[in-house]
Amino acid sequence: MLATELIATKRDGGELSAEQLRWFLRGFADGEVADYQMSAFLMAVVLRGMSRAELSVMTRTIVDSGTRFDPGPGPPAVDKHSTGGVGDKVSLILAPLLAEAGLRVPMMAGRGLGHTGGTVDKLESIPGFRTDLPIDDFRTAVNEAGFAIISQTPAIAPLDGRLYALRDVSGTVPSIPLIASSIVSKKLAEGLDCLVLDVKYGTGAFMADADDAVELARTMVRLADEEGLRASALVTAMHAPLGLTVGNALELREAVDCLRGGGPDDLREVTLKLATELLHMTGTDSREDARSRLEGILAGGAAADRLALGVALQGGDARVVEDPDLLRAAPVQHLVTADRDGVVTAADARTLGVAAIELGAGRRRLGDSIDHAVGFELHRSPGDEVAAGDPLVTIHAASHEAAEGVVPAVERAIVLGGAPVARLPLVHAHVTPSDC
Predict the structure, then answer these.
(1) For residues 299 and 321, what is the distance between their CA atoms, to the nearest angstrom?
(2) Angle between helices 3-11 and 18-30 (to 10 degrees)
(3) Of 20, 33, 134, 235, which cross-links 428 as Cys (Cβ 3.0–4.6 Å)?
């Protein structure tokens, strides 16, 4: 077979056979298909889509590129995955929270993708924290702490790791089949009993339109169900950043605050809804009882102690959970204030996400290093009233020049108006296999 012919077939809207698609994907994994050829194929998929049969073949090929993780005997193994958003630090809270509730969470998470942050990058803000655990150490951490969060490994779905990195730098992130195959393949390879998906929509998400997000949710739930993994999805809003921080170490601080019973209302609510869904799916609680139990755990602070245990097992400095000031801070904090009285009508997530990359919190090119300390701290959310001179955003930057360079973006992102605005509901839809 010729890679160029298969790329042309997909470019022209054709459907590849199972044999052709497997050959192309395995060729990329083996180095016979070049990065630039795979980039061209991915762009063709973005423009032309994939059939249901192609999606299934791609997902299974990614899973088969490595081994399936087996957590061993014990409580149900569950996980949550987000399609990506700005300020989304839910996984940092949800994993230890569910572990404290008696479940196991073997989570393989990603790095920043496009304008959105990544759970792995946030965790690597912790001195010494290892996300590259060998499989046996991953299993040990899951069973001792109740959870572990690792990056993509050569052992589990390695093909997705290469595709994920290439999509990040080739403009091929916003594609329903590519997102679906990437997420579901990793979760199938984790050996899960249940999965909940957080499908974002809005300016800061890869799916700007709510209907597209619902389609993506249905695609992933159906795909997981066809492969024997019980799954459901919540479609949640991502017009403004989730919580009040954007940037790796800043978001970790906010996650710890939430685990100790504090944190912004929107972050807490999305986390509780996703965790409640998973606890209910295991059959151990009604939704009402699950919610009540999880709220009690957060209020008592035990989930923060569980996070500290997990951090220690993965080589990190667990003291940062007790004292987040041990995390590295940016040398420059530049405050942006309101230039007039009014109401915050928008805090555009995409604009802030892109600006965070400009500060160094994300990657512009494959292999770029990131600055874990930089980012944004929001002091107001959409719907809040402000007076002239009130603080809006603190920019955490490596230099005064870097901070001043993103001020125009911050001023575009935080929009002031004269009248109150209605807050959009956090959850737009709930998707189960019966909806697909």
Answers:
(1) 16
(2) 120
(3) 235
The pTM of the full predicted model, rounded to 2 decimals, is 0.90
Task: State pLDDT tens for residues 105-114.
Answer: 999 887 776 6
Pair 429, 234: CB distance under 8 Å: yes
- Options 10, 89, 139, 167, the catalytic residue: 167
Q: How many CB atoms lie within 10 A of CB 97?
A: 30
Which of the following is catalytic: 56, 125, 151, 182? 182
* Predicted confidence (pLDDT) per residue in 27-77, tens digit: 999 999 999 999 999 999 999 999 999 999 999 999 999 999 999 999 999
Question: Which of the following is catalytic: 79, 121, 160, 168?
Answer: 160
160 part of the active site: yes
Contacting residues for 260 by C-beta, under 8 A, at least 6 apart: 301, 304
- Whether 167 is catalytic is yes
Q: Which of 186, 218, 239, 380 is catalytic?
A: 186
Domains of the chain as residue ranges with CATH: 3-49 (1.20.970.10), 78-324+427-435 (3.40.1030.10), 329-417 (3.90.1170.30)
Burial pattern 364-379, b for ≥16 Cβ within 10 A else e, equals eeeeeebbbbbbbbbb
Among residues 56, 65, 79, 81, which one is catalytic? 81
Residue 149, classified by CB atoms within 10 Å of its CB into exposed (0-12), middle (13-18) or buried (19+), is: buried
